[in-house]
Specification:
Blueprint: E1 5-11, E2 24-27, E3 38-39, H1 50-53, H2 56-65, E4 75-80, E5 83-85, H3 101-104, E6 118-121, E7 124-125, H4 131-137, H5 139-144, H6 157-165, H7 169-174, H8 182-191, E8 194-195, E9 201-203, H9 205-226, H10 238-254, E10 257-260, E11 262-264
Parallel strand pairs: 1-2, 1-4, 2-3, 6-10
Antiparallel strand pairs: 4-9, 5-11, 6-9, 7-8
Helix pairs in contact: 9-10
Length: 275
Amino acid sequence: MLNELKIFNVTNRADPLLNDLYCEPAAVGKDNFPKNYLECKTGDNIYHKDPYYAEYVFQYWFWKNKLKNYNENAWLGFCQYRRYWLKEGYDKNITITRENLKDNILNTIPSSWKNYDAVIAKRIYVHNAKFTKLIKKGFRNYIKDPTILYDNKKHTVKLHFDMFHGYGILDKAIDLLNKNDRENFREYVNKNLFFNPHNMFISHSKIMDEWFKSVFDWLFKCEEKFGFKILTGYEKRLYGYLAERYLSYWFNKYTSPIEWDWVFVDMNKGKRTDV
């Protein structure tokens, strides 16, 4: 289909609701999944890296094993178990829950996309960090620059990453990036107060192929430097967090993207426990 829209819902748990949505269930993790879930254990895969790469375990598998099967004009993309693309014209006055999710998520190609070649999640801002968080998690940063404590224009993507994913790691990772993007990406994270979150995007196959070539080339270099042993708890998904920031930069530099509304849904609320 020339104007096909295909979105894969990357999930680490089976949920009967996913069978009734417009996106195809895509499995990561060790849950027991129904047969209709696409699993990423076959062919060229990085399934064993699931705790560290998060949704990129499936995305890598899709790139290497399935992308070539789609028409170049098809719109292909990804969402997550608790984060979904919203349809054009959804009612902004309602709360979206499990019960009304199907009625509000994206299921057709909006006419407003005609002048764009990629879709990225609407940005989130990180410049309103609470003072207590800055004191607790940003102390290395404000020791170097005390004005960070009262100047929220300095609450950049870089500061946010330092606070929540490991001080200095992003800088060291950027050092490993290809020379065409290295300093531009460094400037991006040091100046911007927002990024496009959750590793969600929709594009045509050629752009998707170029994106995956770039991001996995970088992530595998980062993996050689940082490895896995030092990654514990929240920081285990380091490579997913790095890719999330790079996605914002890369798509804004190399494509003509439109930012699109998305929603977080607490999938446990209203879920039956007797089935």
